[in-house]
């Protein structure tokens, strides 16, 4: 399913947090949204799963305005892996993943054998099968994130939205997650902070800064040292090949062109 | 009177031609005690318990807060003002309004006011609902307190009886309102069970699952308030049932509404029937107000349950 953001402007608290963003995500591709905090990544994604209504512009799924779909139709087309599922009323892992089947049914009635099979498969893919009976609140941040992945997978939608999906995951599960969503053949849009992860798993990346799309294209071409410096305010050293780069970031000290002794530099990884 | 005799009387009224109704083995006094007093009040206790427990469960998911109960939006405070006005000034001064109708009107007015105050940009925010309900409830309680303290001493007991809740005035016709409200609310809740589960996980999460969180919250507010208002107008402000029974149901079967709602309704009915039995027997012939009994029996039982292992299922694991 093709996703189109057409001239989308989003207002929050009287401020335009996304301005005239236009972007097309082709069916079956994996696109990474990157940008500093507050650049509008999440707000743009929210217009796709209808948690926000654009002030101006249209979001389309295969040419159809998402605002004109019913809630259930939209939820059958787009699943979201949200950031934090914890509430005061706790559900078990399996009950949480079963919620992913909600858009496929009327609001009452029992879970069908099909539902249970799909949920089992989703839990297996997210590697949480042995957590099925645990309460979500007793899990670690990374485990909860995998529960939310399983819930989104169980929704069986052609489009998958990931909002900072890997911020609690250990390195191995970060790669597991990205290769899992890649292997599904669905249209995936992910807001990511880790540019190396985006480079390895995204067909295209889109860079946002201050609510505007400033660059888009294949990661190896978009992530130039200049762009990273101006957008994120960090220095970058590019390791590896030009078409398979690995980035090492350093704090931008004393402005461009100035040679700073290594002892005054701070590893960006320590700061984040 | 034995349980068997009571059963005979009830069956005799429901099924025509039972021999013991005409052979003189039961006195008219016994017949009247069971059919006109004990049966209606037991049924009202069951209906009120089930209704308040269901309303509490719905209110807890509506505002997504474990401290929520049927009265959190000022419904009982509104009902109290209506009832106390009738008790203090007399029905005639209020255009012939009966206590039940005045209480129901007060409950409805309070919940409409809270809904209007909590609305912003067409959406009901849980936090604003709670705060508006608490503030308005406090205001209305002050009105009730003032009216109570400035009235004749003989009226004070009536007011207290209403505030603490009682099913002693039950008659068969008084059961109709709560029964209809319970059935309607129960059917709506059952139809919405899966959406309620989605709402538990947050508004944004609910929307991503195809549930219009704002609209659902508005509907739940109306259903829970009408149910509570109907019960309160007949049985007064019986406390604790609506807060605690839903939690007990979650401890027993988990938070999935498809399982916890039936347990909540049944649990509320059984709990209040037992409380009413104790209310009229432990200090007989004096009757203890139901609200005192529910708190006295319910609080220790709930605290024991909460501290027991296994309460994680209700979210008490943290």
From TrEMBL, chain A:
It comes from the Bacteria. SMART domains: AAA (SM00382). Residues 3-235 form the ABC transporter domain. Residues 252-272 are annotated as: Disordered. One of its GO terms (molecular function) is ATP hydrolysis activity. The keyword Nucleotide-binding applies. Residues 261-272 have a biased composition (Polar residues). The keyword Transmembrane helix does not apply. Keywords: ATP-binding, Nucleotide-binding, Transport. This is ABC transporter ATP-binding protein.
């Amino acid at each position: 399913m093709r996703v189109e953001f057409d001239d989308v402007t989003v207002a929050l608290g009287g401020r335009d947090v996304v301005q005239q963003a236009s972007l097309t995500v082709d069916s079956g591709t994996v696109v990474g949204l990157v940008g500093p905090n507050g650049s509008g990544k999440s707000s743009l994604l929210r217009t796709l799963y209808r948690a926000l209504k654009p002030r101006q512009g249209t979001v389309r799924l295969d040419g159809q305005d998402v605002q004109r779909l019913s809630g259930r139709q939209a939820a059958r087309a787009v699943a979201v892996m949200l950031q934090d599922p914890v509430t005061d009323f706790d559900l078990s892992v399996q009950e949480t993943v079963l919620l992913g089947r909600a858009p496929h049914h009327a609001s009452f009635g029992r879970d069908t054998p099909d539902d249970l099979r799909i949920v089992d498969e989703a839990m297996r893919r997210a590697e949480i099968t042995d957590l099925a009976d645990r309460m979500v609140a007793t899990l670690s941040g990374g485990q909860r994130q995998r529960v939310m992945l399983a819930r989104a997978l169980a929704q069986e939608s052609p489009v998958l939205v990931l909002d900072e999906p890997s911020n609690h995951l250990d390195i191995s599960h970060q790669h597991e997650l990205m290769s899992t969503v890649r292997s599904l053949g669905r249209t995936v849009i992910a807001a990511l902070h880790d540019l190396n992860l985006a480079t390895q798993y995204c067909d295209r990346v889109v860079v946002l800064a201050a609510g505007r799309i400033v660059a888009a294209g294949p990661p190896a071409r978009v992530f130039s040292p200049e762009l990273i410096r101006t957008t994120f305010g960090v220095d970058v050293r590019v390791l590896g090949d030009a078409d398979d780069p690995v980035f090492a970031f350093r704090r931008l000290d004393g402005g461009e062109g100035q040679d700073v002794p290594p002892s005054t530099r701070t590893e960006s990884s320590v700061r984040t | 009177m034995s349980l068997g005799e009571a059963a005979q009387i009830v069956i005799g009224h429901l099924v025509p031609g039972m021999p013991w109704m005409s052979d003189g083995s039961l006195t008219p006094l016994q017949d009247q005690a069971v059919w006109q007093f004990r049966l209606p009040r037991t049924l009202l206790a069951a209906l009120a318990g089930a209704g308040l427990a269901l309303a509490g469960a719905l209110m807890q998911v509506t505002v997504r807060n474990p401290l929520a109960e049927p009265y959190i939006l000022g419904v009982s405070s509104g009902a109290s003002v209506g009832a106390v006005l009738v008790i203090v000034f007399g029905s005639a001064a209020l255009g012939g309004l009966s206590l039940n109708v005045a209480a129901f009107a007060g409950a409805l007015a309070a919940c409409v006011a809270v809904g209007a105050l909590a609305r912003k940009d067409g959406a009901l925010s849980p936090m604003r609902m709670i705060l508006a309900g608490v503030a308005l409830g406090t205001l209305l309680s002050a009105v009730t307190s003032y009216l109570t303290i400035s009235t004749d001493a003989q009226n004070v007991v009536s007011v207290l009886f209403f505030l603490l809740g009682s099913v002693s005035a039950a008659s068969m016709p008084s059961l109709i309102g709560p029964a209809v409200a319970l059935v309607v609310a129960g059917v709506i809740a059952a139809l919405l069970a899966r959406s309620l589960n989605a709402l538990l996980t947050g508004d944004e999460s609910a929307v991503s699952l195809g549930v219009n969180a704002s609209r659902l919250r508005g509907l739940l507010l109306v259903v829970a308030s009408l149910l509570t208002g109907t019960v309160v107008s007949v049985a007064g402000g019986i406390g604790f049932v609506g807060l605690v029974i839903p939690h007990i149901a979650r401890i027993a079967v988990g938070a999935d509404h498809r399982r916890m709602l039936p347990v909540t309704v049944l649990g509320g009915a059984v709990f209040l029937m037992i409380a009413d039995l104790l209310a009229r027997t432990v200090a007989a012939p004096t009757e203890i107000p139901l609200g005192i009994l529910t708190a006295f029996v319910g609080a220790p039982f709930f605290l024991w349950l909460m501290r027991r292992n296994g309460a994680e299922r209700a979210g008490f694991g943290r």
